[in-house]
Amino acid sequence: MRAPHPHTPLVQVVDAAGRIILGKQHQLRLALACLLARGHLLIEDLPGMGKTTLAHTLARLLGLDFQRIQFTSDMLPADILGVSVFEREKGGFQFHPGPVFAQLVLADEVNRATPKTQSALLEAMEERQVTAEGQTRALPAPFFVIATQNPSHQIGTFPLPESQLDRFLMRIELGYPDRDAERALLAGVDRRELLAQLAPCLDGPSLLALQKAAGEVHVAAALVDYVQALVAHTRSSPQWLAGLSPRAALALIAAARAWALIAGRDHALPEDVQAVLPGVAIHRLRPSVEPTARMSAADVAARLIEAVPIP
Questions:
Q1: May I ask the CATH class of domain 20-198?
Q2: Inter-residue contact 22 to 181 (CB < 8 Å)
Q3: What is the secondary structure of 86-149 as a DSSP string?
Q4: Which range has the worst mean pLDDT, 79-83, 88-92, 261-265?
Q5: Helices then strands, each counted (H, E), the chain
Q6: pTM reported for the whole predicted model
Q7: CA nearest 99: which of 145, 67, 129, 131?
Q8: What is the pLDDT of residues 145-188, one digit of tens each?
Q9: Cis peptide bond N-terminal to 142, omega within 30
Q10: I need a labelling partner for 204 at 20 to 30 A (CA). Which of 10, 36, 119, 240 fits?
């Protein structure tokens, strides 16, 4: 049997992004898998870790129409969705679309806005449409939201409620770069200059075709059993306040399919599920007892993987 060949355009995207975001190949693959699975991505980390740069990089490499929304405490829902303005020449109100009407939307520092403004993204993320002033308008396809948030202990943040966190297929952290990557960053060219030199590896129609291909990756019955066993363990274990929902189980399978596609396979393996499990589970599980140290996504996934054997 021939070894699988990684999907060339997707590998080109990861490699090119890796020249901008140094030393974070795994996180870049997770972000790409999230987008291929038709999900939305939440990036939580300290300021200055490259969250915004990652979103800019993906937008340019994927050839998508891009809008950035800088969330602040005084922002209103109309600042995101759009507003109708009376135009005397046309004799009536005309709707002016907000920045959410883009293929890739960066919701920067989303937890600095009030809950009312945060909720304006809910319908757009879930239904891929916007209802404003009694009229429903479809959003472009493909449509992705990449949201960044600062840690909740920082001043001026409004924690995202569980209902909105669950709208994100994955949550990832970038973390500090290792010594070699940071040295290359300090001695290299400014990231903004490198971003301006990036050429798209894909475009919107190609990305839609890849999303369709990801959805057709084969998932065997035994792999579904494994996903169900993982989910069931979170629901029965006293370690968690509430277990993973059916939406989380669907997200786990969709992300595993996308991870397999990036690897060049037409079928998903337990290793694919385990690779995406940290990003899918970390923002959906809350410990029943507050841990003495903050649990990382890797810690959560390691406990689940250790507790549930592969069928």
A1: alpha beta
A2: yes
A3: EETTTTEEEEEE-TTSSSEEEEETGGGS-HHHHTHHHHHHHHSEEEETTEEEEPPSS-EEEEEE
A4: 88-92
A5: 14, 9
A6: 0.88
A7: 67
A8: 999 887 765 565 677 778 788 889 999 988 888 898 888 888 87
A9: yes
A10: 119
| DSSP character string of 146-166 | EEEE--TTSTT--PPPHHHHT
Q: Could you tell me the pLDDT band of residue 2, with boundaries at 50, 70 and 90? A: very low
Q: Specify the pairing of strand 41-44 against strand 66-70.
A: unpaired
Q: Which residue bears the tokens 């291929």?
A: 36
Encoded tokens for 293: 């140290």
More confident residue, 137 or 250: 250
How far is Cα 165 from Cα 161, in angstroms, rounded to an integer?
A: 6
| Angstrom distance (rounded) from CA 104 to CA 102 | 6
Q: Which of 210, 157, 189 is nearest to 44 (CA)?
A: 157
| Residue 289 amino acid letter | V
For tokens 């907000």, name the residue: 98
C-alpha closest to that of 35 among 150, 202, 224: 202
Report the distance separating Cα 49 and Cα 45, nearest Å: 7
Q: How far, in Å, CA of 53 to CA of 31, rounded? A: 13
Q: Are 132 and 81 in contact (CB under 8 A)?
A: yes
Q: Which two tokens stand for residue 193?
A: 């200059």
CA diameter of the chain: 70
Question: Cα–Cα distance between 227 and 299 in angstroms, integer?
Answer: 18
Nearest to 304 by CA among 284, 278, 268: 278
Tokens of 151: 């840690």
Coil, helix or strand at residue 239: coil
Domain boundaries, the chain: 20-198, 218-311
- Architecture of 218-311 per CATH? Orthogonal Bundle (1.10)
